[in-house]
Amino acid sequence: MTSAAERDGDTGGRERDQISLSTIRRLSRYYRVLETAAEEDLTHISSNQLAERNGVTSAQVRKDLSYFGTFGKRGLGYPVRELRDEILHILGMDHQWPVVLVGAGNIGRAMIDYVEFRRRGFFIVAAFDVDPRKLGISYKGVPVFPMFRLPEVMQTHEVEIGIVAVPALSAQRVCNQLAESGVKGILNFAHTRLIVPPGIRVRTVDMSIEMETLVYVVNKNGSFPLD
Amino acid sequence: MTSAAERDGDTGGRERDQISLSTIRRLSRYYRVLETAAEEDLTHISSNQLAERNGVTSAQVRKDLSYFGTFGKRGLGYPVRELRDEILHILGMDHQWPVVLVGAGNIGRAMIDYVEFRRRGFFIVAAFDVDPRKLGISYKGVPVFPMFRLPEVMQTHEVEIGIVAVPALSAQRVCNQLAESGVKGILNFAHTRLIVPPGIRVRTVDMSIEMETLVYVVNKNGSFPLD
DNA sequence: AATTGTGAACCTCTTCACAGCT
DNA sequence: AGCTGTGAAGAGGTTCACAATT
Fold first, then answer.
1. Residues with pLDDT less than 70, chain B
2. What's the rounded Cα separation, in Å, for the pair A152 and A143?
3. Would you say residue A4 has pLDDT above 50?
């Protein structure tokens, strides 16, 4: 367990004590703009352009990037392709990530269909479900297995990431099974807070909460930024 | 247009200048705990209990609630049912919200299937799609209409909230159509930043970003809280 | 004795502003 | 002249700690 004491060195960059979640999320968005810019054969891009297309300030862009190194040229801006690849590396998206999906319902299938996902280097090696009617058949090339095969499949494909797309009541059980099979990160769509052993990271996407915050701002004219 | 100048009065509470997005999201979570507590016939609950079940501090809970009024009794805690209803009111969830859904693909159908959604007072009055094969038939009681009927249906049902569950390339167009039909808030599942006229609020749920942040923390042992 | 409500301290993230390169 | 990189200032959100209340 290489604990969080890898401050400097590694990427050759001056990685800061603690990068914020917001910075990482923005990096992910900068990447998209850079992807487009690269397709348009733009060679350089300024923090300003990057900022405008993301609804943030240019200082924010420069600060975010500065946590990881110095990629720009003063007077010129940032080299598009280079920065794009750099961000890819920072995010850890410079290689493929095998993923298991638990729950072959609508959300599960939506994840399988999600082209952007595959394009980003995630590939779902298998789905798992308890519903016998879903087993055996494969959806868009993704086989659907019974739960008991989870540990085996995860080991074989060296899977570290799992998606939980089951009803709230089964979510914790599934989460435990993933944990036992050595998962490191879970994307949780269930309407529940998952309890996990230390070392495993969970990101919950809860559509009710998103809708409720939306309703709040619509209703009360709340004026904070939602994105 | 009742602008954001309704600081005090209204709920009889001392509504603060600006409530943060985080506070609203937490409120939404407190509500869930209170719902459960009410089912268990608990009459009072302390900020501590509320905090523990949400992974926050008790001071945070008290501060969050204090923005909207004083609901607790010192030495006793908060009255469960009363606080539950109060939060429901604050969030604007004390009545039903008709919603239109654009895109009857997997994510769209997942939203229709999402029981928690209906239970919270959102009901999808209709779905819209461009695929002729999907039109006419209804999914779980939700009719699927062609796009041109959007304005009419939104007017009839006085819909203020729309869900965008179409591919990235169509998202902005759909968003414009929603805007023209008088939408106030949009929940966007497309992998794009939507540009909207002022006054319309957009909440984007981008699964790629969620996965990428997850990968970052898994990969780099990032240690910030993900939830 | 227990627990709230809240000003003040603290911490974290964002923006400013400008020196330093190209 | 243009634009980055960054220390310092500013804003915003969280936690502390304690008086007030039941």
1. 1-17, 221-223
2. 14
3. no
- What is the domain range of residue A148? 97-209
A193 touches strand D (CB under 7 A): no
H/E element holding B37? helix B21-39
Q: How many CA atoms lie within 13 A of A187 on its CB side?
A: 27
- For residue A160, the domain's CATH number is 3.40.50.720
B17 at A interface, C-beta within 8 A: no
Number of domains comprising chain A = 2
pTM of the model as a whole: 0.91
- Percent of chain B exceeding pLDDT 90 equals 87
Q: Is residue B109 in a domain?
A: yes
User: Is residue B218 situated within a structural domain?
Assistant: no
Interface of B with A in 127-156 (CB under 8 A): none
The amino acid at A210: E
Q: Where are the alpha helices (DSSP H) in B69-206?
A: 80-91, 106-113, 115-119, 150-157, 168-180
Residues of A in contact with B225 (CB under 8 A): 21
Say what percent of chain A tops pLDDT 70: 91
- The pLDDT score that the predictor gives to residue B147 is 97
User: What is the nearest CA distance from A77 to chain B, expressed in angstroms?
Assistant: 23
Query: Is A218's CB within 8 Å of B193's CB?
Result: no
**B213: nearest CB among A21, A168, A219:** A21
Q: How far is A205 from chain B (nearest CA, A)?
A: 8
What is the 3 state secondary structure string of chain A? CCCCCCCCCCCCCCCCCCCCHHHHHHHHHHHHHHHHHHHCCCCEECHHHHHHCCCCCHHHHHHHHHCCCCCCECCCEEEHHHHHHHHHHHHCCCCCEEEEEECCCHHHHHHHHCHHHHHCCEEEEEEEECCHHHCCCEECCEEEEEHHHHHHHHHHHCCCEEEECCCHHHHHHHHHHHHHCCCCEEEECCCCCCCCCCCCEEEECCHHHHHHHHHHHHHHCCCCCCC
